[in-house]
Amino acid sequence: MTPTVDPERVLRELAGLWVSAGKAGDAEEGATHAGVLRACTMTLVVAEEDDRDWPRLGETIAALMPEHPARAILIRLTGAGPRALSSRVFSQCWMPFGQHRQICCEQVEIAVSDAALADLPSVVRPLAVPDLPFILWCRSPRLAGMAEFDALAARAGKTIVDSQGLPLGGVARMAARGTLVGDLAWTRITRWRETLSQVFENRHNLARLGTLTDLSVAHSAPMANTAAYMAAWIANALPRLKISMAPDSGCDSLRVTLSGGGFRVELERHENRLVVTVDGLPRCANLPLLNDYSQMREELGIVRRDPVFDAALARALQLAYPSV
Amino acid sequence: MPTDNPFQDPLRFERQVPECVVVIFGANGDLTRRKLMPALYRLAYDRRLSAGFAVVGISRTPLSDDQFRENMLDAVKRFSEDTTFDADVWRTFAEGLFYVAGDINDAGLYQRLAARLAEIESARHTGGSVMFYLSTQPSQYASAAQGLGAAGLGKGQGWRRLVVEKPFGHGLSSARELSGSLHEVFDESDVYRIDHYLGKETVQNILAFRFGNGIFEPLWNRRYVEHVQITAAESIGVEGRGAYYQEAGALADMIQNHLLQVMATIAMEPSASFRSTAVRDERSKLLRSIRPMTPEEIRYDSVPGQYGPARIGGQDVPGFLQEPGVRPDSQTDTYAAATFFVENWRWAGVPFYVRTGKRLPKRVTEIAIQFKPAPLAIFGAGDGDRSPNLLIVRIQPEEGISLKFLSKRPGSGMDLRPVSMDFNYGSSFGERSPSAYETLLLDAMTGDATLYTRQDMVEASWSVVEPIQNVWRETRFDFPNYDAGSWGPAAAEEMLARRGHAWRRP
After folding, report:
1. pTM (2 decimals)?
2. Complex ipTM over 0.85
């Protein structure tokens, strides 16, 4: 018999989940009728390969829920093999400190093999919460390159990928379809960009901005797209700069130097510190821990067009593919 | 020369403090150590401060810059409540800390300060912008402002702002006198009167809640609102500040500033924009619309209280008169409750019950808006609970908003029970809320006065409070009139009962 998932059944299971969660809450609290509080601000679809670290992904989703409560639909990509499509529902609850009532979010996990991928959009679409944003977080570069991905992304108001595992051209193609796109390779440099921007909040430094002539970005191989974004963003702000991109050792190193007219600004990371040096005077800034949670937290907070990213993506493409 | 930073990205970047120097008078005082320095350090930790940002501490005790830095390091480590101490961040932040010793009444202090500011400006490119923060005795505000003016520090190459803490006078005439002194040096637009209640997230969220949503505002008037209760309860006593407190009292210490500002925020008309002037104009207009009470009304619609000794949780708690530094015959109010009416079309006839007190059962600050019952009662007395609809805005300790309404209890028959729909800041937004001082310092340094009190608001508040104060001063009360650990004097309950209402037990 062909494996199927009936969205109506999943929705009934979700409804049943709330009834049982409410009863459990009442039982725990005795006569206080505390129940549970359902929280939902969006539908978040997360696609990930089966052989990746699912417990860690679960922790990330759980950490995101208090700030971005969502109906989370987790798609477990089981890869090649016989056709497989199955689902289960559960809730993600937490008890706010000092409160008597749990707050809960819904989760649906769908396991799907490549052979059943074509059926996935028809399962996911009815599960989306009406009138709230629908966000797709594709953690699988393999899926992002497949035709089935386009059908899934077509429903999404925003698609989030990480171009550290994808060519920038793929990100640009998604953006060209008109949906909002978030790229964690770009999110990764927000605090860097902010620190550089802060240097020029000082009027003394701002007055010397015009003297800068050169931009050098040294990066390790895995940081190529992030470095391209950084260079592109700076180049958009200062179009006349001469840009040089250079490889660097280390697993995720990035160093940015702006210079010219006797003025020099450098940004470099040392462990979890960002050191910005202006004319030899260093200043240390605390760099928040960068992980899936912190980056997704930022991206989920932006469900509208991001003109600075759009411009940086367009310019980064020119830097990555100068001959195109 | 470019005038705008081309690297700005307002969608993703946090609001930044422009280059400036903060000069703190009273740099060794409690407020600086407990609130100001931890807040400034937190702003540095969050990368909000510009590279050249500097602080100049001023106090009488002779200290070197390094000694001042050591003192502030200790303060930051002891009083930063939810901030990880980062030695590297502190080191670069501390490089911008300086100290000038001197007496506020000594003209030489201001000359030395001017010289120090010039040095800092040259070394750290702070653009000549300076914020003077008076964290001193209120009696020294005028001297400090005049000293700054005489040394030419009231004006400069960049902006100059003056931040003052409450109390803003101890009555209408002294408030005007104080403002007059400040205005000799600083324009009103450069005077920032801090009210830390307005910096709390939930107070700000009242504006978002009321004016960012279309569904509540139509209900926000005399047609639907039965009454409003504003409560600011403290479980602690005067905590060794008896001598200070007995000169102030709950009415002047809390209602005149914090609670009337909260009331103005909850009751003001929508402003035309979210610009500072527009919001403050509306808040001010509301304060001016509060009807000052006649002496007769004051006896009927206000209640002073003073706590007496009690035993709480197995521990003996002293009454106010037994607190150190308090005169044994003190008539100071440690509790104050009043019924205010707003004379405009929106609120005519709706009582605003305001109360505050020390040694109440718990620490809680909240606003409760009680709505009128449904116009036609189709459910009978046997159909369960008939609790009114309540909208509760919790300011502390857990910031949030709750809406209480009736729902049918599942099962056969019509059994109504109240349910609560809760929005909790801590759980709905997992991120840390900035402290009130972080918010207010950031606002002042970026020139946003929306959450600061303006002179006309101060005067309007005193116009409401001073008549009550005068009647209370002329009356001999039979204090103490409530036990520590209780919800206040019985007369406060009676004040509401006369209109068929009752205080909530938060």
Report:
1. 0.77
2. no
